[in-house]
């Protein structure tokens, strides 16, 4: 294993550089070889301040309302001060000051020649060698590797970060950019997390030459907003097309001398020029994403062409599937029909090809990239990767070398903290989707796209309200299960045509304008023309949305429940028939999150919205 000379001195086995720190209960990497001297990790300082809360607006529904660069400065250990100084003048003083706190607690590493740990380690001397203790240590390492899989899976989605490797060697690899307050101020443990992953098309720097457009500084070529739910049970990865026509807001960029430069916004331009053009940095891209989605981006992670090559190689190759023989002379991708394990240049060709699959558009390429990243997540979660110290080292080395992040997470300590927040997300609950768009109607030759408002709004609302695009099953009692079964029975049976659904809509606890928004959605998107906005309900504080209907309106109720994603518990059937043209009564409660957004359960993405589950192998067509 290439340990960059650090794991080779005195025949030290790189796998033995991991030692248990009794202060944290975690295995940690010790790169120093001197007896009795260990490198310590700075204590976790906690996450930065979060975004300010947003007050809920008052309701005022009325009938007929019209809705209107620099390199990150990781500290080096005292023993590595010379090497660090040669690399960038970084001092190892701070780490040396902190070493004393761990010297008596962290056991020394084993020497391959001696076959045992240094005898002068106080912690090792006081620690028993029973088989029970060994089992406990092995269990701790397994636990650490388990959450590392989650961390590194996210790393691959995000373009790379070696969150598990919390020492100075990797800390010094990371490049950072101060985005001048563009983010939330830092992710928080008890709040949703939004990370913007940017893949640039820059042609400068080692490994990025030879792909055309020589000297390009790079724009926002691949963009994924990675939203992690507050309870960490699920995540949505929203791809934003580079050719989306949108408005780029004014933004400030931080100069090397500490001053800021204000860059004016641009109306009606491609999304990809939110980075690179006119001196814009990733903070400008973060602001643009917020303008589009309404979601505040906490942090960004950015990688280039070289990252794809190095990461795919470090993980031992990524399994992909193609539904047909592929020979694309432009990207140089050549694959026979079926499954393949690709890495390096071939992996880059796979994610860059635009003429091998689909309708040969950038949207088809996005789907291919999502399939690649999903497969990479599965590879990172595999025991083949998690149980290989050499492979984990290579992944971390490649990832941190390829990564540029905002200064808020510009250290291994902060990335490690972020990784622990993300580790609990099961890949089966990670869903890739693409921003709903339409061909630009202003162009004869279709080269750009515009936002599909009708389909994008519900999707944004799902993300804003932390609703998963995948089913997240929760345990329930026998009584809850029986009640749920009874409620679900109300949803079964024939459904009326949308044109035959007659309903009066009241706002009884939803946001301002909820009744009118729902009316517009029912009439314009669902074809339920016999719906009416009745304004505010006499009871303005209903916690749950309800639908009351007559016995002869059950088919209408089932149709409306399907449209709106109403649970069976929301249906309140009457015992008598409705008379004449009497309408059903829909009262929007405090659980109402937006027109087209299901009240409960797994979210049903708007029709036509493409989805890729991270735990499924999909063949590119």
Largest sheet: 9 strands, mixed
What value does the Rg take, in angstroms? Answer: 28 Å
Q: What's the total count of β strands?
A: 27
So what's the overall shape? globular
Assign the CATH architecture of the largest domain: 2-Layer Sandwich
The total domain count is: 3
**Helical region count?**
16
CATH topology name of the largest domain, in short, is Nucleotidyltransferase, domain 5
Walk across the major sheet and give the strand order.
3-4-17-12-5-6-7-18-26
Q: Detail the poorly predicted runs.
A: 1-20, 31-166, 207-215
Portion of residues in beta strands equals: 15-25%
Helix content: 25-40%
Cα end-to-end separation:
38 Å
Output the structural class: alpha/beta
Describe this structure as you would to a colleague.
- With 621 residues, this protein is of the alpha/beta class.
- It has three domains: 9-50 and 69-129, no CATH class; 149-305 and 382-471, Nucleotidyltransferase, domain 5; 478-588, Alpha-Beta Plaits.
- 29% of the residues lie in helices and 19% in strands.
- The chain is built from 16 helices and 27 strands.
- The protein has a nine-stranded mixed beta sheet, sandwiched between helices. Strands 22-21-25-23-24 form a five-stranded mixed beta sheet, covered by helices on one side.
- β23 (546-549), α16 and β24 form a beta-alpha-beta unit.
- The longest helix is centred in the first third of the chain and has 28 residues, at 131-158.
- The chain is globular.
């Amino acid at each position: 294993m290439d340990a960059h000379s650090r794991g080779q001195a005195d025949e030290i086995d790189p796998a033995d550089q991991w030692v248990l720190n009794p202060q944290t209960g975690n295995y940690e990497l010790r790169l120093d070889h001197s007896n009795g001297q260990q490198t310590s990790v700075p204590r976790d300082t906690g996450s930065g301040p979060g975004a300010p809360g947003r007050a809920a607006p008052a309701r005022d529904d009325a009938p007929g309302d019209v809705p209107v660069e620099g390199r990150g400065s990781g500290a080096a250990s005292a023993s590595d001060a010379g090497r660090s100084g040669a690399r960038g003048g970084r001092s190892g003083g701070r780490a040396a000051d902190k070493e004393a706190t761990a010297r008596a607690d962290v056991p020394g590493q084993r020497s391959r020649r001696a076959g045992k740990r240094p005898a002068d380690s106080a912690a090792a001397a006081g620690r028993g060698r029973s088989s029970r203790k060994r089992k406990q240590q092995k269990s701790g390492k397994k636990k650490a590797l388990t959450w590392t899989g989650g961390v590194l899976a996210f790393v691959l989605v995000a373009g790379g970060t070696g969150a598990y490797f919390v020492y100075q060697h990797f800390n010094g690899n990371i490049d950072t950019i101060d985005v001048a307050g563009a983010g939330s101020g830092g992710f928080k443990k008890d709040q949703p997390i939004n990370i913007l992953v940017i893949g640039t098309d820059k042609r400068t720097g080692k490994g990025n030459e030879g792909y055309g457009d020589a000297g390009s500084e790079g724009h926002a070529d691949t963009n994924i907003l990675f939203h992690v739910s507050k309870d960490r049970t699920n995540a949505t990865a929203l791809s934003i097309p580079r050719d989306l026509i949108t408005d780029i807001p004014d933004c400030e960029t931080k100069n090397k001398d500490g001053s800021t430069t204000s860059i004016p916004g641009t109306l009606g331009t491609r999304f990809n020029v939110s980075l690179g053009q006119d001196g814009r940095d990733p903070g400008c891209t973060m602001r643009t994403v917020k303008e589009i989605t309404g979601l505040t981006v906490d942090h960004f992670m950015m990688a280039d062409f070289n990252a794809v090559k190095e990461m795919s190689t470090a993980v031992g190759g990524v399994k992909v599937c193609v539904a047909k023989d592929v020979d694309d002379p432009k990207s140089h991708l050549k694959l026979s029909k079926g499954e393949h394990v690709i890495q390096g240049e071939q992996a880059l060709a796979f994610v860059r090809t635009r003429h091998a699959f689909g309708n040969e558009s950038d949207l088809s390429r996005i789907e291919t990239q999502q399939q690649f990243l999903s497969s990479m997540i599965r590879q990172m979660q595999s025991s083949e990767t998690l149980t290989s110290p050499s492979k984990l080292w290579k992944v971390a080395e490649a990832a941190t070398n390829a990564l540029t992040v905002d200064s808020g997470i510009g250290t291994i300590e902060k990335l490690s903290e972020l990784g622990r927040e993300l580790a609990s997300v099961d890949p089966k609950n990670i869903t890739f989707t693409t921003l709903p768009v339409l061909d630009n109607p202003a162009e004869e030759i279709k080269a750009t796209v515009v936002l599909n408002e009708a389909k994008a709004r519900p999707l944004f609302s799902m993300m804003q309200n932390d609703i998963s695009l995948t089913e997240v099953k929760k345990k329930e009692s026998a009584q809850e299960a029986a009640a749920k079964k009874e409620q679900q029975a109300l949803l079964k049976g024939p459904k009326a045509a949308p044109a035959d659904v007659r309903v009066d809509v009241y706002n009884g606890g939803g946001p301002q304008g909820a009744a009118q928004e729902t009316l517009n959605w029912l009439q314009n998107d669902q074809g339920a023309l016999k719906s009416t906005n009745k304004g505010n309900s006499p009871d303005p504080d209903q916690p749950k949305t309800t639908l009351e209907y007559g016995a002869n309106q059950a088919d209408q109720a089932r149709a409306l429940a399907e449209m709106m994603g109403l649970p069976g518990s929301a249906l309140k059937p009457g015992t008598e028939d409705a008379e004449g043209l009497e309408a059903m009564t829909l009262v929007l409660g405090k659980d109402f999150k937006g027109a087209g957004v299901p009240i409960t359960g797994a979210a049903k993405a708007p029709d036509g919205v493409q989805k890729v589950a991270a735990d499924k192998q999909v063949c590119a067509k």
